[in-house]
């Protein structure tokens, strides 16, 4: 996923409205109080419930989101353009992903932590994917990995699952392939919808425990959700998926500039932080900080 400065196609088109999945029972059980596991996400789909997912790249954000009840935390390769200052997700390395993953994993006690396999760490062969994923689990302490790509990567998913590594599939718009896709473009419109469904089915059949869809029409996402037993997660995929995910800096209003069509801001953290920094600077310049209360 990405939240780079967005070209026009990233937010084009009118929103497609579809009814969200209704719970099968008003008394459907919630997630457990302890560590959330993959089977709990499956139960959510089976029981018609939804769950929330946010990105996290450091201990404090991870701790806040964990305490707030976010069920899934994604250590996204979007750290490239949300933490490291790159224009895209492509430059981030596996070593950098491990560092961010370890910080997030150490700070959580409840959420399931998923880490992206970064560009260049899995495409060569299933063996490369297994080796990279083992490092994310052993050194990054995450519980699962997320991998971009369609049906062509089904054998890679099988190899990871055989190695005991849970895999979240990522289809639709895949930021690591932005150059091949022609930029930030909605995927799965019209006749291309069936390809998205076929990708999801192939990856779920290969053992992916969840399918994440980015920037696909709601109608296509609904077709995917109906075609696979495993939970689905959407980002710009309408309300019919089991879960929803956003980049936390977008959700909380920390990042400035143009936002994607699918982003809803729940706070204005950028303004709060800016006001605090200005107030601090004013006090320092005026000589009122540190005062008696802050001096030994």
TrEMBL record:
Q: How is the cofactor bound?
A: Binds 1 Mg(2+) ion per subunit.
Note down the stretches annotated as region Disordered. 1-29
- Enumerate the SUPFAM superfamilies for this protein: Phosphoenolpyruvate/pyruvate domain (SSF51621)
Which compartments does it reside in?
Cytoplasm
Its needed co-factors are: Mg(2+)
What does this chain do? Catalyzes the reversible reaction in which hydroxymethyl group from 5,10-methylenetetrahydrofolate is transferred onto alpha-ketoisovalerate to form ketopantoate.
Designated name of the protein = 3-methyl-2-oxobutanoate hydroxymethyltransferase
Protein's gene: panB
